[in-house]
Every structure is written in structure tokens, then in C-alpha cells.
Design brief:
The complex is a heterodimer of chains A (105) and B (156).
Chain A: E1 6-12, E2 15-21, E3 45-52, E4 55-62, E5 71-77, E6 84-91, E7 96-102
Antiparallel strand pairs in A: 1-2, 2-5, 3-4, 3-6, 6-7
Chain B: H1 2-21, H2 37-41, H3 45-51, E1 57-59, E2 63-66, E3 70-73, E4 77-83, E5 88-95, E6 102-107, E7 112-120, E8 126-134, E9 137-149
Parallel strand pairs in B: 1-9, 3-9
Antiparallel strand pairs in B: 2-4, 4-7, 5-6, 5-8, 8-9
Classes of the chains: A mainly beta (105), B alpha+beta (156).
Chain lengths: 105, 156
């Protein structure tokens, strides 16, 4: 349903630098359609979580003030090359998406 | 229609506050944490801080905010926060002049660095606030961001 995400996890020493790019309109609910003048209903990612080999390493609550096609970066200590990092999100309509990647060295 | 929505918002926000007072709402950090309705619905900075539990905060020099001093477009303002506060468990970002200041709250389990990077929308020039939770204490830092073209309403 939702477009795929882009994810990159690169090891710097023993810290894994994770960068994720998601595809989402992130509508605030305050914007009007230029042609009709109608308010575009709010539609945004509410929860994001990330795991490293199944262990929760980051969880976020977001609002409509996160930019369209959101970017998220975070750093996990103690990761090793080949570990699996997964990121998933849920939006205010219950749509979900997730992706994963192996930690690269 | 509009009236009904107002009423709904008022009751849901009020209900949320009552639940929070009873301690029934689990703080973010528990797996699949519930959406913090109070924080998201708060329309001023003071209420937003309160809804995060941050009634008392100490100013901290261990919180580093990397955001542009002048942002050309309010729709995409890159923000990087790193917290050197020992035991950082949450990093929250709030934009004072947005209709709803609360922007994001990141739960940082031990083993994850006190660092987050994202991009936010700003309706106009505003102080950008960061609240860090460590143990049961709250720490605060802020930076002014000037926005040339606002990120809400007009344009895309």
C-alpha cells in the first residue's frame, strides 16, 4: 500500500549510524487544496519504531509538524556488521510500513 | 460540523488529562506506546511542556541543537539534536509558534545514543525548543530559527 522506504545502516566504530527516508504526504489538516479551497484532511505518521536484531532501539511519537517524506537519523551503540536493523511506522489512519537492512561496515 | 469537532477535541483532550492524572497513560518508551493526545493537542508551549511532564526544567549546555539560523523554506527545516546528558531517555522537539508546538518525542533506550536527526515544518520564525528527559528530571535548550517562507497553509 505505502511506497517503500529507503534505509541505510553504516557502522562507524561500534556505533551504527542509521538513516531512513520514508514516503508519506504528512498532511497537517490545515492546508487547503488550491483548486477547490477544501481542507485536506490530516494524514501523518504517528509512531515510528526501530529494532536491532529484534531489540527495541528507538521509538518515536510524531505529529503533522514532521516534514513530508520524513527523514530520520539515529545512532545505535554496540552494533556489529551483519546485524539486522528494522524500522516501521504507523500513521493516523492505521496504515503501516516497515523495512529492514543489514548493518554494513 | 465545526462546532461538533471542537467539542470532540475538547472532551478528548480533557479526558486525556484525567487519564494522565490517574497515571493510566503509560509514558512513551513502552513498546507500541499510545499516542500522547495531550501533547499533540496542546496549542501553546506551556501546555505542551506540561503534557510531556516537563513542569520543571533546568537549562542545559549538554544539549546540542543543530538547525539553521535562517531557513529559506519552513516546509523542510533540518534539525539535529544530540544530548550528552547522562541517562537521556527522551528527546522532544517543540516549535513555539506552530499551531501545535509539540512536534516529536523520541524514546531512547540505553544502548542508543542521545542523538536524533529529522526535518520539521515551521509556520514561521520561531524558537525551537528541545526537552531532554533523563531519570525523572527534565532539561531544556532552545535555538531561534528565522523562516523566510512559512511551511503551513500556502504553497505545498
Amino acid at each position: 500500500m505505502a511506497d517503500p522506504m529507503k534505509i541505510r545502516a553504516v557502522l562507524e566504530g561500534d556505533v551504527c549510524n542509521v538513516k531512513v527516508l520514508m514516503n508519506h504526504p504528512m498532511e497537517t489538516g490545515q492546508r487547503r487544496e488550491a483548486s477547490t479551497g477544501q481542507l485536506v484532511p490530516a494524514h501523518f505518521i504517528q509512531n515510528v519504531s526501530a529494532t536491532l536484531n529484534g531489540r527495541l532501539v528507538m521509538e518515536a511519537q510524531w505529529t503533522q509538524a514532521i516534514s513530508k517524506n520524513p527523514f530520520l537519523g539515529f545512532k545505535v551503540k554496540g552494533a556489529r556488521g551483519g546485524d539486522r536493523i528494522s524500522v516501521s511506522w504507523v500513521d493516523n489512519r492505521g496504515n503501516k510500513n516497515s523495512t529492514d537492512a543489514l548493518v554494513g561496515t | 460540523m465545526k462546532q461538533a469537532r471542537r467539542k470532540f477535541l475538547a472532551t478528548s483532550v480533557g479526558g486525556g488529562a484525567a487519564l494522565a492524572a490517574l497515571g493510566l497513560l503509560r509514558p512513551i518508551g513502552a513498546y507500541a506506546a499510545p499516542f500522547n493526545v495531550d501533547a499533540a493537542g496542546a496549542n501553546n508551549l506551556k501546555d505542551a511542556f506540561k503534557s510531556l511532564g516537563a513542569n520543571q526544567m533546568s537549562e542545559s549546555r549538554d544539549i546540542f541543537i543543530k538547525a539553521p539560523n535562517i531557513a529559506e523554506k519552513g516546509t523542510v527545516v533540518p534539525v539535529e539534536v544530540s544530548s550528552k546528558v547522562a541517562g537521556t531517555s527522551n528527546i522532544a522537539i517543540l516549535i513555539e509558534k506552530n499551531t501545535n508546538p509539540f512536534t516529536a518525542n523520541f524514546a531512547i533506550p540505553s544502548g542508543t545514543e542521545g542523538y536524533v536527526s529529522t526535518r520539521v515544518k515551521m509556520s514561521g520564525s520561531s524558537p525551537l525548543h528541545v526537552v531532554v528527559k533523563a531519570g525523572d528530571k527534565f532539561y531544556h535548550a532552545q535555538q531561534e530559527v528565522k523562516v523566510t517562507i512559512g511551511g503551513c497553509g500556502g504553497g505545498s
